[in-house]
Amino acid sequence: MTRPTAPQMGTYRLLDTSPQALASQFSAAQEKIARGAKLLAELKESDIEISLTPKDEVWRCDSVVLYRYRPEVERPLAVPVLIAYALVGRYQMVDLELERSFVRKLLAQGLDVYVIDWGLPKRYQRWHAMDDYVNGYLDDCVDVVREKSGASAINLLGICQGGVFSLCYAALHPQKKVPLIESFPGWITPKNRRCSSQIRRDASFTL
After folding, report:
1. pTM exceeds 0.90
2. Residue 160 annotated as catalytic
């Protein structure tokens, strides 16, 4: 009776952990980092072409700017969409490139799209609280969009931290008739899923 033989193992090359090899690898990594840092230092903002969809500034307060994207149809839908992104991230994430642009997809569907640019953080903003953003800047932007569009109600699309702002705003200002078409708070747990669902019911807005 012959014993079964163990399957042949593939050939593996052991990692060289000698001091000379590690020093060589460390030196190569330093050179790559130096080349990358040099390349980044030479880049200008104008060299990086993102957020190319045409838009116009319609309102500004402090470092916060409200833009309206130019419609791609002659008569856009009556109810506009206001996009609120996060403070840390940049609103350009929804309009990266011509073929990778969430905004362009909305415009192609005939929507009238606005977006909030929270701007780069300034030293004085260290005193800002959520109230300043929700009941201050966001509320002002909603009023401007309603005035510009002539619509009594608008759709609010909150993404990441902007989703948190949007949920709070819709709950605190039901008289503004701001339905959330979607909200991405940025983290999902059973607890905050229940909380956001309760807010949606209390605020009486649609998804």
Report:
1. no
2. yes
